[in-house]
């Protein structure tokens, strides 16, 4: 019991104080559980990243399941997962309840959020660059990436359907002889977020296009929140504790059905990954070498890269340029497009710093907010 309590406390503490999403949380956990507690080998959790990315769900949640199972079996997995999710439920329930009272139209605050969105653009772009070679190793991978990206920008094509099609294509390719083989309080909330958790290959960032289709803009199926609110939400998920994917699930669940909806959405987005990763860990080596799984993931990884590219494009539209006829705070008007040169420079600098590993994401986000506020009109 004492070990379970310590496991919960450490996971809760990391999720509460580490900002920047799954990669940052995994890096901190690797340090704590190897050097401080001696429960894992140094670098072991970082080495598990490829497996985490092969499974649908949130990277930080997969990390919790792995550490918990190694420390205390299935019970440890559940305890560690609860520790990672609880900070998001607590913090984003308050954020969701008080969002309307945040003075987002204050010139200083609006400019700060412009800087935050620009930084997030750079962060996602850097992660796409980091994973490019692994996601798209050859010409066939690039072809899948290009087709997926085109479909993601085609009206009325759900992002979840693109991922599912790639998964099915990979399985079929593995079964074909020759070259193919070598290659909530509401049921709606529960079903929605179970679906999101089942297709989130690569972590929370890849769900951004899915969230945009379902919740953002006048044609969205469920909430129709303004694009600016969604952009601010994504910036807040970078500045607040917990994994980005869980934070966003809590927010949207709350907006749909209140506090209970936030709890149900958070739980449901974790379930598919928890089940599949737990099954995979039971026979880890066999899972890694299974030719059907290898083929399926060879098709899914380029689609994951396409989703991240689509997310970069979406955030560019929320930070660097805007087709709104009235310029935003600190925007420079170029023709009919509001083009923010400072935001573009911030996004490029953010991507370069993330790639160089010379600056923590939290420091980067805060600095970008300060730059945005300083450059307000």
Describe this structure in words.
The chain has a three-stranded antiparallel β-sheet with strand order 1-3-2. The relative contact order is 0.17. β2 and β3 (337-339) form a beta hairpin. It is mainly α and 377 residues long. It has helices spanning 2-17, 22-36, 44-47, 49-54, 59-98, 107-135, 139-152, 159-175, 179-182, 187-199, 208-215, 227-239, 244-282, 284-289, 291-319, 341-356, 361-374, and strands spanning 321-322, 332-334, 337-339. The protein has 17 helices and three strands. The protein has one domain (2-374).
Structural domain count: 1
The coarse silhouette is globular
Distance N to C terminus: 57 Å
Instruction: State the order of secondary-structure elements, H for helix, E for strand.
Output: HHHHHHHHHHHHHHHEEEHH
Determine Rg (CA atoms, Å). Answer: 20 Å
Strand order of the largest sheet: 1-3-2
Question: Which range best describes the helical content: under 10%, 10-25%, 25-40%, 40-55%, 55-70% or over 70%?
Answer: over 70%
Instruction: Name the structural class.
Output: mainly alpha
User: Largest beta sheet, briefly?
Assistant: 3 strands, antiparallel
Care to count the β-strands? 3
Number of helices: 17
């Amino acid at each position: 019991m004492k070990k379970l309590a310590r496991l919960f406390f450490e996971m809760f503490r990391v999720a509460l104080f580490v900002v920047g999403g799954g990669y940052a949380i995994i890096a901190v956990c690797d340090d704590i559980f190897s050097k401080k507690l001696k429960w894992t080998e140094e670098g072991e959790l970082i080495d598990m990243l490829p497996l985490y990315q092969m499974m649908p769900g949130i990277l930080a949640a997969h990390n919790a399941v792995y550490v918990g199972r190694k420390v205390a079996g299935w019970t440890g997995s559940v305890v560690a997962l609860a520790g990672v999710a609880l900070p998001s439920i607590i913090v984003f329930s308050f954020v969701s309840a008080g969002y309307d009272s945040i003075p987002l139209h204050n010139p200083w605050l609006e400019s700060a959020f412009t800087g935050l969105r620009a930084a997030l653009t750079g962060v996602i772009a850097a992660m796409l660059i980091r994973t490019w070679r692994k996601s798209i190793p050859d010409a066939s991978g690039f072809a899948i990436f290009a087709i997926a990206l085109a479909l993601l920008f085609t009206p009325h094509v759900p992002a979840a359907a693109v991922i599912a099609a790639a998964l099915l294509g990979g399985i079929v390719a593995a079964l074909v002889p020759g070259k193919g083989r070598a290659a909530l309080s509401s049921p709606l909330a529960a079903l929605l977020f179970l679906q999101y958790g089942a297709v989130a290959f690569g972590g929370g960032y890849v769900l951004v296009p899915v969230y945009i289709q379902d919740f953002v803009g006048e044609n969205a199926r469920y909430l129709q929140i303004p694009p600016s609110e969604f952009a601010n939400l994504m910036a807040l998920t970078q500045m607040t504790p917990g994994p980005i994917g869980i934070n966003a699930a809590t927010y949207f669940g709350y907006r749909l059905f209140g506090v209970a909806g936030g709890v149900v959405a958070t739980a449901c987005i974790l379930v598919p990954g928890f089940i599949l990763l737990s099954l995979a860990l039971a026979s880890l080596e066999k899972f890694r070498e299974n030719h059907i799984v290898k083929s399926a993931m060879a098709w899914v990884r380029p689609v994951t890269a396409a989703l991240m590219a689509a997310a970069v494009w979406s955030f560019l539209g929320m930070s660097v340029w805007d087709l709104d006829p009235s310029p935003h705070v600190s925007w420079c008007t170029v023709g009919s497009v509001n083009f923010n040169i400072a935001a573009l420079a911030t996004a490029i600098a953010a991507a370069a710093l993330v790639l160089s590993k010379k600056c923590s994401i939290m420091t980067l986000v805060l600095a970008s907010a300060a730059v945005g506020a300083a450059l307000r009109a």
